[in-house]
């Protein structure tokens, strides 16, 4: 097993859920949930946080001195900057590392065990796949915006379990090598593994109602 570096972007402001990365979720800021999970992983050897918040850098340096912090440059700030551009910058700073996992603060329910298993799966298939990303399986009747079926023929009411599954990227994790990123200019390479994460770990905070839902789920545990 080779060393894997976790890349975690944390920006100060967010468009749809204001200040979500720093909002309190059941007693601690949202970003702390994924940080603690990454620190618990056996297969993550180093964590790198890319942020535009000087206050966060100061807090992390005090509370998590083992975590490397990168101050995001001005040209990479804003809501319209591609995450691939931020990863490209991180790789230019982390010159000695070869394998990376990128995740987000917005997936606080992902477990360390799931992350470790995904990393193991990536390395087990490195001879034929160049990356891995997490997905949700959708096995129901899906439609294009014009009403045409995506994975079924209208009028043929197949059982849903017999339909062709469709996979939705859930942003829980992306695993790739430096070389695969350079080849594709993307965290998803040309021969990726689509890795299904457990449903109860795959919730993502995109909207205000997502935050409320996850808070209820955490309290329910």
In short:
This is Acylneuraminate cytidylyltransferase family protein. With about 220 residues, the chain is an alpha/beta fold.
- How far apart are the termini? 33 Å
Strand order of the largest sheet: 5-4-1-6-8-7-9
The CATH topology assignment is Spore Coat Polysaccharide Biosynthesis Protein SpsA, Chain A
List the secondary-structure elements in sequence, H or E: EEEHEHEHEHEEHEH
Number of helical regions: 6
Name of the CATH architecture: Alpha-Beta Complex
- Principal-axes geometry comes out as globular
InterPro entries: CMP-NeuNAc_synthase, Cytidylyl_trans, Nucleotide-diphossugar_trans
Keywords: Nucleotidyltransferase, Transferase
GO molecular function, one term: N-acylneuraminate cytidylyltransferase activity
Organism: Aminipila butyrica
